[in-house]
Amino acid sequence: MSKNLIVIGGGAAGFFCAVNAARLQPALKVTLLEKTGKLLSKVKVSGGGRCNVTHHCFDIVEMSKRYPRGQYFVKKAFHQFFTKNTIQWFEDRGVKLKAEKDGRMFPVTDSSQTIIDCLLREADKYKVNIQLHAEVRKIRKVTGRFEIQLADDRVVRSDFLCIASGGYPKSSMFDWIKECGHSIEGPVPSLFTFNLPAHPITKLTGVSVEKAIAKIAGTKLIEEGPLLITHWGLSGPVVLRLSAWGARELAVSNWQFIIYINWVTDYNEQTLKDKFQQLRVELAAQKFVNRNPFNLPQRLWEFLLNELSINAEMRWTDLPAKEQNKLIKNLCSYECVVKGKTTFKEEFVTAGGIKLSEVDPNTMMSKKVPNLFLAGEVMDVDGITGGFNFQHAWTSGFIAAKSIGTSKE
Length: 409
Prior knowledge:
The structure is a single chain. By secondary structure, the chain is α+β, with helices and mostly antiparallel strands. It is built from 13 helices and 20 strands. A seven-stranded antiparallel sheet has the order 17-16-13-14-15-12-18. Strands 6-2-1-10-20 form a five-stranded parallel sheet, covered by helices on one side. Helix 1 packs parallel to helix 13. The model has no long low-confidence stretch (mean pLDDT 95).
């Protein structure tokens, strides 16, 4: 008699579990339940619509260090399905990936639709039954099988169940999973931008600095990388990484904190003071507005001068010592008061979820409920920006599929 698998969640992890389980075990009847009317919505919008599929890293130890939560869990899991496997999996299905200089990997088409179409073709090829607007309300196990009650009061049954419903912003949204016997690490936002209400720097919307160091006062949180100024505050990879590593700490402070930015990462205040003495000689007769010796975006350079009321027409040799010291401080340690965060609904990532001590990383099976599998962000695993969350989705989805597809039960 053929067995049934129901996968809850039509995102990357759920889809990958469904199509691979159906492929690995042709006798298995696979049904995928998605509560909304859209499939693979995060895949669609990620990477600005290009889909950051994975990261160009082939060292498991190094890769696992990119996960603020779940580092040791993914390190074990990556031995079964890693970045090279992801690249090969898509390439075998006609989707070639390319690496950019920061390590992010995208389809060569630069379109997320390429990834979506590939997964949909697999689902069609292996006859995965996809049901939209199928929200799960309750799960019970009756005489060894799962009974899944949907919001429209339908009940569907299966031998195997994989929960890949993604992260939730509120603990109460995990209640239907808690009823299965699992414990939840309370969710808090991760991967968010920093709001600077009414701060004058927001007038520089669109200005980006290729390399900046950002440090959060009173913590050990410090990151280096590209920074983007937006109309609401600060964004870019350096800010998103800080938000991921500091997710729980920053939630405790209600996202109110001070951040210091070094715009000139080759210097600290002391070494920059020495550099200024050199510049005052070399650029003595030149005007500040014409000579930006640190290759900062011109709008940012003029903003920093204007903040200190330094006349852009002033010559380097005429800069008073007091203004020089203030400028050095603002170049190396520019202070911003952060009041709140901005998250993007479609790309929302949470820290939190099912406790990893309750999941076997070698099979993705629950240690609490036999034949219940977990995949993706529903577990307490989250990575920094750069393709790491998708790699966890592919890895956990594949391992769950393999475990189900080779099950002797």
